[in-house]
Amino acid sequence: MDGIDVVAADLRLDGETIELRPLGEGTLDYPADLREELLSALPPGDLDAEAFCRLDTLVGQSFADAARLGVHLADGEADFVASLGQTLYHWVEGGHALGTLQIGQPAWIAEATGLPVIADFRARDVAAEGHGAPLAGVLDALWLADDGAQGKPGPGAQVALNIGGIANITVVGGREPLAYDTGPGNALIDLAAQQRTGRAQDTDGALAASGSVRHDLLATLLDDGYYRLPAPKSTGKEHFNSSYLDRVLAGLRDPIGDGDLLATLTELTARTIADACRAEDASRVVVAGGGVHNPVLLAALRRHLDVPVLVSDDLGMPADSKEALLTALLGFLTWSGLPGNTPGTTGAAGPRVLGSITPGATGLRLPEPATTPPRRLIMRSAATN
């Protein structure tokens, strides 16, 4: 909830290959008061119908501003806008996803740009008995397949890792297609930084670097039942939130300083990610998301793994805009009449065309549905025509 990532991209389907060329990227900060309202709406906060309506509208208007920037990055020409939405709640019980809620009313985006808007991608996968997350599996499986990513290692599973608020992995080339949330990424780290220092994040891991891991706290954190659940599985800030952190800290016999707390939470993220990667026999781990900017976290991850750990930029995929590029891909697949989920990664009963479409200013004219499902994705440089 630190801002809205925007990317403009050109996508083309050539036989079984999708070619993706980024045209530009940017980030828009949420207005400070809106960000505070969003954070307050997360569990354990309460959200009544009036507040929900306000947030859905205000986030939609902020997304509309972001979409205007995206159209500008595309030199004023675009076919559609894809919006992943702002997650407020992910309803999971007994290891099954029962519902998911992303806000940001797409009508505001359509009104601002005149373009059709494809949004609400996760709900259809959940309705098909999937988790609706992580959807990154469809991008990673195409990108890391065959010759999609240069410099592919020898036999063995590749793991694409995204470290956002929640960390998730996609396993490519393993025993079966697989993707799942490993646990907290930056969520608890950011929360602790906000509570202890008033800053939204532990910039460059400076606080974590100043402290030492408290092994009694780490042991308690690692005992969370989520880590023992089988994949596919998903989680979010409805679980790893302020109440969770307060409850765990209340069980400590001795108080914990700021540096030690951040060091321990950073170690938790690295440890749980590494445990998942080892369990999947990873031969290489390719990292994207905001966590790549935390050198303490990356160092801890490399310490726990004995395989190469690369940043996705090394293979041509911009780490900071990967999730926005995923959203563009999901929109393109829906626009082309193709499924946007990978059942083996979300647990869905089968492939589904994802999302709902809000028409633009001139009605809705979809292209003829593609007849050949893609098997690979190749990144093209912005300079490539």
TrEMBL record:
Xref: Pfam families: AnmK
Single Gene Ontology MF annotation: ATP binding
GO terms, biological process: amino sugar metabolic process; peptidoglycan turnover
UniProtKB keywords: Kinase, Transferase
PANTHER family for this protein: ANHYDRO-N-ACETYLMURAMIC ACID KINASE
Protein name: Anhydro-N-acetylmuramic acid kinase
